[in-house]
Amino acid sequence: RSDAPVTVETAVLENDHLKAVLLPGLGGRLWSLYSKAEGRELLFRNPALRIANLAIRGAWFSGGIEWNLGHTGHHVFTCAPLYCCRVTAPDGEEFLRMYQYEAIEGQVLQLDFHLPDGAAQLAVQVRIENTRPGESPLYWWTNTAVPLTGHTRVFSASGQVLHQLQMTEYGKNPGFGRCEMPCPPTMHGADASYPWRIPFSTEYFFQNERTEPAPWEVAAEEDGRGFFERSTQPLYARKMFCWGIGQGGRHWCDYLAQPGQGDYIEIQAGLAPSQLHTARIAGRGVVQFVQLFGAFTAPAAAVAGEWNEALPGVEAAVESLLPAARVNALAALYAEKALLPGGELLCTGDERGGLERLRRQAA
Questions:
Q1: Sorting pLDDT into bands at 50, 70 and 90, what band is 170?
Q2: DSSP assignment of 192-230, as one string?
Q3: Of the residues 60, 108, 285, 312, which has the fewest C-beta atoms closer than 10 A?
């Protein structure tokens, strides 16, 4: 936990609207997404790089956007390098590709980052390929850290949520209950769409319809500004995680950053009802979707008032900023570009994919 300065290799995508900074050597984490138009950072950009003894490999840090594939929890590449290359499409667009072989489930992860001229949102085309002949579990969650204030409020398309039941005794979690937003029974009347009002570390999962044309989630401030993301199917589920405003939760935020500078929540997107569920991927199958990230703006009145009454106004603002038809049109375009061969290699990943190729050749 030294405070000594470190140099971290970054990959940068930039246009007139946004500047995106990625960390290929640390799981491809999207470390920063800066809105030039609004002059503000859209993500929780941690003031320190604090690697903590958390997650599968005892190595995890807070901030930005992480991409979790494979085993339940934060993925094994959280603090490991991904391969990174530049790709040039026939239409002239240059974009960034990161990829890696996930050896536990035998799946190949490919992330194509698109920020063409004029785009107001960063697009990430996610392509997961099952290299094995049989059906396999498929775990995916996109975890986005956004700043937390006393007025931060979270919305998604459905008011139906799975909420985490609290521990009945130390070490035993009874699971989830289903309820309607905004007041899960465990909140004792508190509006859980305002994470700052929640006294303990918890999470809840929005159960959006699998027929929703372009699922979304918003974290907005009192003035109507904030962050939003939108995707294609099958990425339908959404989640809010917070550390809670109790002493322990505030300590975790300080511990993972700098004292007084670590307040954040995560809004997440997944392929299953909760992080204790998994989806499935067919033998030799491919699952893909596109997810877009950008600045949310709406009149302050649109994010105020009772949650269910505010929801239509928030949904209308999301549709105005990024129509569902546009999301699906971009998905079709980027799915084609995902099949383009990689170009100039910018960063190398670890040895797992190479070892798997040698194993197959020997077999």
A1: low
A2: TTSGGG--S-EEEEE---TT-SS-EEEEE-TTSEEEEEE
A3: 312
